Amino acid sequence: MAEIIEVNLASPEFKCDPERILGPLRADHPVARIAVPDGETAWLITRWKDANAVFKDPRFRKDERSVLSAEEIARTCSSLEEELMMRHLSKTDPPEHTRLRACFAPLFAPHRVEGWREDVQTIVNDTIAQFPRSGPVDLVPSFASHIPSLAVCRLLLRSSHYQPLMIEYANHITARDIGPVTDDVKQSIKDLLVLVKELIQEIRARPEEGLLGDWLSTEDSEGPLTTEEILAMVSIIIRAGVAATEGLLTNGALLLLQHPDQMDLLREKPELTDSAIDEMLRYRPPSTLTTPRWVHEDLKMHGHTLRRGDMVLVSVVAANHDPAVFPHPERFDIRRRDNHHLGFGKGIHYCLGASLGRLEGKTAFPALLNSFPRMRLSCPLEQVPWTPGMKIAVPQSLPVALDRPVACSLT
Ligand code: HEM
To answer: Which residue's CA lies nearest to atom 4 of ligand 1?
Structure first.
């Protein structure tokens, strides 16, 4: 077995400057065995070409049940919530994944998401209008987490009086890190599932607009989606969709604050917003690691034997800074072209909500920059606190001084 390479992918130092650790790793140990919480080890993939190969190779599975024994499965999944967490899109492989993806994907297609633009713009405008008139503002609760949780809940339920409760749960549920699920996360998921079950019953009795209603009427050759499949989907889009978009808005804002020339450029040329969003997702992807994949049959990579049942993690942030693919990867350049970053993953598990995440970013950044032309970080970078855990690298709070807002010029 290969030696374990000592790296701390959860430390604030790493999150501030991932390349200091990942650069040497990518050069010398492109497939590295590292320790992960709970006493386990995983293979960490750091080169772009290898990351792509893993995304496309069916020998790397998402459903750990396909490589675990029955006893191990019983140990890892002791409750309904954990069972549900094993059955959503991101934890299944073909043919189950193909069927679920075919049912859910049309509802997140770019043309459909475009129809939500007005709603998202209203959410962004209302959010910014509520900023305090003076004093420092923490951009995380007031901007970055507010917009995505409101957007996802409003799209799920157009008019329901349950919306505020759902938003409250969405705000409480943190993205699951690598390792065991904590008790408070389990409780929040349990509460959310009870709520969604009630909603499903209500919508079945009195159909209403919104994604939840659409899913209830979705059928394929195997019949309608089951309540469990819908519950699993609601759970993943609230946990992954909200947290990841919050990460884009927080990391993107921090990058612009750290690079005032790029912030000015984006303000002057809003037509660069699309490429700016891609550059944010390349430079500081919110999910620095993908969710785990599991080796289904022994295979060789860079001289190592990866055995059936081994965990494999792709370092998205390392692949996104691979000098073999990105010229001057250390430059944050919102005009970058041919930006083949892996911020939304790739292959059959490519992010289902990518168009929605992009739409939220494209709407939120111009509004923020236009409203606060003198916005600046109000604490030294080293004092910005980071989320705990290995999977997500996003500031927990981002205090900014806004000075006085210009008369709101939101469109
Ligand atoms: C900018 C924001 C977002 C980022 C950076 C992001 C990132 C990602 C990444 C990297 C993956 C692939 C993980 C892997 O292969 O292991 C993924 C998958 C997924 N994302 Fe997102 N995401 C974002 C927004 C959203 C939104 C808004 C939603 C839903 C409303 C969403 C729902 C999903 C789902 C359901 C999957 C699993 C797809 C599958 O396995 O087939 N994401 N996301």
So the answer is: 244
